[in-house]
Amino acid sequence: MFPQIIEFLKDKDILLLGFGREGRSTLEYIRKYLPDKKITLADKNPVSPDDENVETVIGECYLDCINEYDLVIKSPGISLKDVDIADRAKITCQVDLFLRYAPCRKIGVTGSKGKTTTSTLTYMMLKEAGVDAVLIGNIGVPVLECIEKVNPDTVAVIEMSSHQLEFCSCSPEVAVFTNIFEEHLDHYTGGFTGYVNAKTNIARFQDENGLFIYGEKSDIPQFVDLSKIKSEKLPVSDETFDLPFDNEHLLGVHNKTDVCYAFAASRRFGVTREQAVAAAEKFEGIEHRMEKVGEFDGIIFYNDCIATIPFAVLNAVHALKNVGTLIIGGKDRGLDYSSFVEDLLNEDIDNIICMPDTGYKIGRQLEEKNAKSNILFAEDMEKAVSLAFENTEKGKICLLSPAASSYNVYKNFEEKGAHYKKLIYGYSKKEG
Length: 432
What we know:
The chain is of the alpha/beta class. It has 14 helices and 17 strands. The protein folds into 3 domains: about 5-90, NAD(P)-binding Rossmann-like Domain (Rossmann fold, 3-Layer(aba) Sandwich), CATH 3.40.50.720; about 95-280, UDP-N-acetylmuramoyl-L-alanine:D-glutamate ligase, CATH 3.40.1190; about 290-430, Mur ligase, C-terminal domain (Protein-Tyrosine Phosphatase, Chain A, Alpha-Beta Complex), CATH 3.90.190.20.
């Protein structure tokens, strides 16, 4: 007998949209049970799957075939913003299929910022309590790679991006929505409204037995109609629970709030306050998220490349408290940085190093307003790191926190952060 998900898929004419890691894992999972099923694969880039039963549609017009199939399994990074979709119900993704068919309990975590930290802490708290738990989703593990490892006693903690949620028709038992800011506006029809609608799918399909946890001090109530969500609602802030943990990797109000989100979610599955604190104290940080690179030439370097919006940058500055140099800049997505400029004018930061594209715009505005910080312009990361070593006072922090995405130069924020760290190591050896 086939698993329920395969029963759903076996008689449908399927289009796999995108053939990155998730698309490959989808094909691999289907092939385990349906080795001879004819499947079509569409991708903008040339792909050649080693599978005689896969037909490919390649090139700039690869999305034109989307309405010709019974079911479209979409990879998260592909935008359907300008595509005429005849029936949205025919579009799904791995996360949607997992929510519908995985035989386990589920906690979903989304939000503009704090998803990965909250998901990881939730998982760690469950494990601390001896719960059979898995950590999957946007954190880097395609969910179908885990579907056969779970059972009715397993709790799956699923980090969910807006891209993964956009075409979901099912919600997890527990939904955590940390906060909402302008992000990915070029991906959705309706811009920010489309982005919010996608995020809201995390709770939209819950019933009265579900739990919706959201940021009490966030703008979520302003943009999400809470009256239409049927589940129990729990607003959470850094003050919701008394959790006296001590961990240098969880500095600042935003990280304390993430700990509270995680406890609010995990206590439904038996986690105690003491177990939550123990897990928080074991948390070792996550790469590119207020990550301490180390001390070099008397300067303490931090990598916060995940900070792609001003709110996240200011959180890091306030949490670290000793920032002598801030490096900003990345792809211009049309965000309004005027409030961020005003905030930076009031911060006690010695140097602000500005990189293309947004950094240049922000830097010029700061100069026009006679900022007390030393405004420096760097054409690339190599120059930015060089300026940081030359200008940062010993004993102070140099923080890379871009307030923008990395796509103007890098494949993603991970590549940008890795380059930053490599340059620091190299420059410190050169100086030594």
